[in-house]
Fold these 3 entries.
Entry 1:
Amino acid sequence: MTSIWIPALFALFLWWFGTGIVLLIGRAPRAMALGLGTLALGGALGAVALSATQADFTGACVAFTAAIMIWGWHELSFLTGALTGPRRAPCPPGARGWLRFRMAAATLIHHEIALAATAAGLGLWLWDAANPVALWTFLALWILRLSVKFNIYLGAPNVAVEFLPDDLRYLASYFSRKPMNLLFPVSVTAGTVIAGGMLLHAATVAATPFDATALTLVGMLIALGTLEHWFLVLSVSEASLWRWYIDTRARKRANRAHRAPDLSPLSAPTLLRR
């Protein structure tokens, strides 16, 4: 049992720290954020290539980290508004059923296509590799995020809209506020069973240290993703884990609102007043 604690703690640290790094970089101007993210993406792809034949503890951790970095690039492309969808407007008040679903899908379809293309590319690259941990990790993140998105769309009481940048605040109009939806118990049950099975297998019957490490890393990630689902219905908000980011964004919004009266036509910096 002791052998799985190091990769489990590593997965926990990378999940929390990686999210914080993405949020921090996302506060920079779009060009700078995407530039830094693209540099990290290049390094991550190189790490996937190097670790693909390395079926040991180090190789599993490197591949896992690389997949998190690739995922982080996609998150940055979304949070900066560079890769979202053709629709960038709030949901009309009367939209229901299929119309509402089509509009919601149009707000992020380009992002989803990019994720699907990346998953397919990693699948073709690593399907027969000695170390497919990067593929497993990215697929787990993708499926978990799809599940969260559908749960938010169908309805949840505690949606962390605080993470949305100002330019993407319109996305909140597509969220539903409900005590529960029918998909939620399926999502958390499946996540708990899969994560528990992988961690138990890693601790008891894994044939090699690589197998134990790989199963622990991905199983722990699925467990954390399942915890994110629970944050949708618990009184404790997920935003509390990154309170520094939320507080900073709130202060910036308050400062902009305080300065808004100074932006009247009479006080605007016209060409003659410069």
Note: Residues 2-252 form one domain.
Entry 2:
Amino acid sequence: MEALSIKIKIGDREYPMRVDPEDEERIRQAGRMLNEEIQRYRQSYNTTDKQDLLAVVAFDAFLEKLEYQTQQADTEKVIVDKIGRLNQLINQAMS
């Protein structure tokens, strides 16, 4: 499949991109979400400095990513612990 040429507007700038057709909607949605966050911070902090707005949006995105990774690691640990316990029970039952 051939890549599509699209433009994504972030803030007041357009960025040309070449994307796989199956990724196009997800990329456009990410652009919309980013612009919504920029607008939300613009209203919340009453600033129009684009660099500040993008920095705060990026910072928040990485905080969310770190929280997700921590939750995922915690969940994986619980799963591994439960599988270990099940293996113990199975081994005991087979003995």
Note: The beta strands are 4-10, 13-19.
Entry 3:
Amino acid sequence: MFGFAAVMVLVAVCSVIPALNLLSLGYLLHVSGAVARSGKWRDGFIGVRKASVIGSAAAGAWVVMWPARIASEFWRDAETIAADSHVVMIWKAGTLMLFALTLIHIVWACLRGGRWWHFLWPAPLKLHHWLKSADSFSQVNQALHTYVLGLRLPFYFWLGVRGFAGALAWLGVPAGILFTATRMPPGGALALSLFGGLLLLFVVIHLPFLQAHLAETQRFQAIFDIREVRRRFLRAPIAFCMAFFITVLLAVPLYLLKIELTPRELSWLPALLFVICIFPARLLTGWAISRAQRREAPQHGFWRWTARLGIFPMALAYVIVVYAAPYLSWNGVWSLLEQHAFLVPAPLLAL
């Protein structure tokens, strides 16, 4: 639980930081790719064990800091009552000493593994023996180096770059046409908007599965392989329909958060909702790809046409939401590039 919560928060924080938001996109793409390759949902919960160390360490540090916080409140109250008294000096010295001891305790708990039970007891004898050991710091350095390498940050970043570039290549033309339509007179704008909307409808239906195919094969050319995606759709049409439904359903509410400008210091909160909504969509997309891969023959025409008739109105509803977004979003026409189902929360920051 600590690990999953930490993964969601870390991915959300990265998603609102320029350049690092490609890490979050790469992670989410890798989730669908891992499930697509194995067919197991649990393989999509990537990095949970590693992140559990960060989550438990953050929770433990927050708890053990409370005595120091309470002492600092007493110090401030004493300053308010009698700023130059001897009692204020005692509270000041005690608070600073308590903060120093708490910081040492947190660092030592993290060095021992960062689990929640390491914050309950400081283990002073173990700390004494650790300080006397000659190779203690080299062991910490090696463990930290191994942990950082295990995060595979360059891999996620490069996958995010390719996924972003591929999605932008697909979305650039219809979004550009819709953008141009907003600058034209009403008559021409309507015709151009219909043309751009039809192109966007075609892209929206295929792009989630093209991105999953890219993450599965690790080949950039895979994001343009529509024939392969259509071939897999014939083998698992209902699974594709379910995955597409969850993808667009959970992406639409995120546009409501764009109506008002979110304060910069709270920008990670909408991003957290973005990650929580998109994560199950990526799991389902990878599952649909894997389900199609395990089947050898196309499904009956009844199931194929049922899935098509289900996907089309959902895609059309999503396109209508995207078309209306420039008139509702704080960012105006630039919201056409804020395709939450396929890109990072604010893709302009990634450019």
Note: The radius of gyration is 26 Å.
